[in-house]
Amino acid sequence: MKRKILKNIILIGTAVLLFTACSQHKEKNISGVYRGILHSPGGPLAFPITIQKRGHQYTGFVSNGADTVHFTSVIVQGDSVHMNFNFYDSHIDAKINPNGNFTGRWHKRYEGKSQRRMKFTAQKGVTDRYPRSTSQTDVFNGQWPTVFKTSSGHTYEATGEFYTKDYMLYGTFMTEAGDDRFLEGTYTDSTMTLSTFDGAHAYLFRGHLQKDGSLKGIKWEYDASKVTWNAHKGKSQLRNPFKIAKIDPQHPKVAFALKNLDGKIVKSSDPQFQNKPILLYIFGSWCPNCADEARMLRQMYNHYKNTDIKIVGVAYEYTDNYNTAVKLVDNYKKRFNIPWTLLVAGNNNAKVVEKTLPFVKQLHSYPTTYFTDRKHNIKYIHVGFYGPGTGTYYLKDKQGFKEKLDDITQ
């Protein structure tokens, strides 16, 4: 009898242990909204995260104002979650805490084999990026010509454009190279906080209103870089993107001989390009402004695909390794469903660009776009790109591209 009781106790104990083990390994449900934070030296660099479960797989995205950037995959393994931005060679690895919050790190390959890493946390159920303002001021609304100064003393001009809505602050900073994406944050009567995170860029801006009505602030880039800025309300002084770069009289034609994603050399003298106008753009899969341009070009492509225009994208990545670059550019191709020619040219150093594409007299920015006639003479050069976060500037860029494409395809 005692043996029977002991046997039953052992069986029950074994069942309990098996049940406990199965419970411990049961996948946790992480669906929901989160307030993600990268722990910047300037304070919390916050951004909303949304994660959804569809079937047996998770999907998700981060939000910046009206913009959403989707993870290429969200993978849960035990008490860990991995959120990947494959198109930016970037990912977040985090532990899922018992209360549903996340603790971990964001990793981003920057140049060569170097990595950027920032501490990451996320609070489940919190939807606002920052607490909503209680101020009634509209002092920050409008354009603010700005001068940024790096720690090395280098200065560059920009324009901030901001507006308030539902007690939150929105806007962006624009330079002649592009823009700092959709910025979102909060404000008081005399201070402002804006941030953005899109898998590639992690920026935090803080500004303080001065007695003379100007703004002084600091921009934290990633985990360490700090840039000061000064701004005065007024009209933007940025030049027209079509009037920045000059055509090199020594190299007035677009010409190239570079590998495509299959390793084949593609030349501008190939039959497919003969007597055809070309739109050639210089880009990197790591560049969000380049992504904005690609998204716009893909939308415009349907209008021009029945013309004889040839579009060529030339990629310069954070690596000299061709095979690694091909994987990154292939992710870019799939992301935007690109049907035109993509070439891989080398790393993203400006000197490499100018060496591999001799008609580039001086690379001002990623992206840079060239429009040619049917003899491949360069007619127009567009520097940088203003994305949707810039509002009317984005619409002007789109209109400018359309006008130039209409001209070279006549």
Characterization of this structure:
- With 410 residues, this protein is of the alpha+beta class.
- It has three domains: 32-124, Beta Barrel (Porin), CATH 2.40.160.90; 142-231, Quinohemoprotein amine dehydrogenase alpha subunit, domain 2 (Lipocalin), CATH 2.40.128; 241-408, 3-Layer(aba) Sandwich (Glutaredoxin), CATH 3.40.30.
- It has five helices and 25 strands.
- Strands 4-3-2-1-9-8-7-6-5 form a nine-stranded antiparallel beta sheet, with no helix packed on it. Strands 10-11-12-14-15-16-17-18 form an eight-stranded antiparallel β-barrel.
- A hairpin with a 3-residue loop joins strand 14 and strand 15 (191-197).
- The chain is globular and about 60 Å long.
- The protein starts with a helix and ends with a helix.
Topology, element by element:
Layout: H1 2-25, E1 32-40, E2 43-54, E3 57-64, E4 67-70, E5 73-77, E6 80-85, E7 90-96, E8 102-109, E9 115-124, E10 142-149, E11 155-165, E12 168-175, E13 178-179, E14 183-187, E15 191-197, E16 202-209, E17 215-221, E18 225-231, E19 257-260, E20 265-267, E21 278-283, H2 288-304, E22 310-317, H3 322-336, E23 341-347, H4 350-356, E24 368-372, E25 378-383, H5 392-408
Parallel strand pairs: 21-22, 22-23
Antiparallel strand pairs: 1-2, 1-9, 2-3, 3-4, 5-6, 6-7, 7-8, 8-9, 10-11, 10-18, 11-12, 12-13, 12-14, 14-15, 15-16, 16-17, 17-18, 19-20, 19-23, 21-24, 24-25
In short:
The protein has 3 domains: 32-124, Porin; 142-231, Beta Barrel (Lipocalin); 241-408, Glutaredoxin (3-Layer(aba) Sandwich). Mean pLDDT is 92; it is low at 9-25.
